[in-house]
Amino acid sequence: MLLFLLLLFNVCSAKEIQTPIINPEARSDISPLQSPISEPICTFIPPSGWEIAKLINPSPFIKIGFVGKGSTSFRPSINLALEEVDGDLKDYVKAVKKIHLADPDTKCRDLGKFNMRAGEGRLLDITVSTSHGDIKQYQALFVKENKAYILTIAVLKEDFLRFQKEMIQSLESMNLIPDLYTPLDEKQQTELKEFFSRMEGNASPESKKKELERMHKTLSEKYSQIGPHWHYLVLSEGASKLNQAQNSALKAD
Asked: Any long-range contacts for 94-97 (C-beta under 8 Å, 24+ apart)?
């Protein structure tokens, strides 16, 4: 049931950083625009300047990761994971701690209640001894309707004080929203709907890809306060609509 060892991921190297512009052909079956069966969308805001990253050991449980710049080749990182669970938050925290503490190189403390935009969760303080040195991790856990939301941030212990404030702010930012339009005012919602509509239209694939690039720039300039994770979801949805339009055109031919 619990696959938390997958969450203690290796930090990505610079060559594994990927752009938030989504490849229209690399698409998940689930649209983030409106979650299936009214399932909420989990979002968070990583520390400023951190880049979206490809995980070294990808897992279906890990939805996205970001990396920053540390004092060594080990890069500070944050990732979001989801999994189905039985029981409540108390049971889940107990099970997670048991897995962490089964590793003799890992220390884990429950720091107690932790308030996030999504609601009240728990915060774990984890230290792992590795070849890079001691790695300090904060892990925010939140459970709702039999689903666990896990936001994990990791830095070298020697860099911990430098990043601590930003780490806490990012963990606190974890939120559950019903759809991608929720963070926007009415004018912004209209702009986003028009973007998605253009992705579904009859324009050429090349012009739509340019539209994706323009939207990427617009998100960075006009929607920076919502954060790059939400930007990623918007671009992913736009790429999905482009891919669907291309597939429909091929079938029509």
From this structure: 95/1, 95/2, 96/2, 96/4, 96/124, 96/139, 96/141, 97/124
147 and 204: one domain? no
For residues 120 and 53, what is the distance between their CA atoms, to the nearest angstrom?
28
| pLDDT one-digit tens code per residue, 38-81 | 589 999 999 999 998 876 666 778 889 999 987 777 889 999 99
The answer to whether 111 touches 123, Cβ cutoff 8 Å, is: yes
- Residue 4 or 247, more confident: 247
The helix-helix angle for 186-200 and 205-222 (nearest 10°) equals 160
- Both 222 and 194 in one domain: the answer is yes
d(CA 10, CA 168): 21
For residue 240, what pLDDT is reported?
84
Give every CB contact of residue 91 below 8 A, 6+ residues apart in sequence. none
The model carries a pTM of 0.81
Report whether 147 contacts 82 (CB < 8 A): yes
* Whole-number pLDDT of residue 197: 87
Domain of 93 in residue numbering reads as 4-177
Dist. CA 36–CA 123, nearest whole Å: 28
Choosing from 150, 177, 204, the residue where a domain stops is 177
Residues 242 and 190 in one domain: yes
Domain count, the chain: 2
Cite the beta strand spans of 2-118 per DSSP E: 41-43, 51-53, 62-67, 77-84, 106-116
Residues 228, 141, single domain; the answer is no
4, 96 contact by CB (below 8 A): yes
Domain boundary among 151, 177, 203: 177
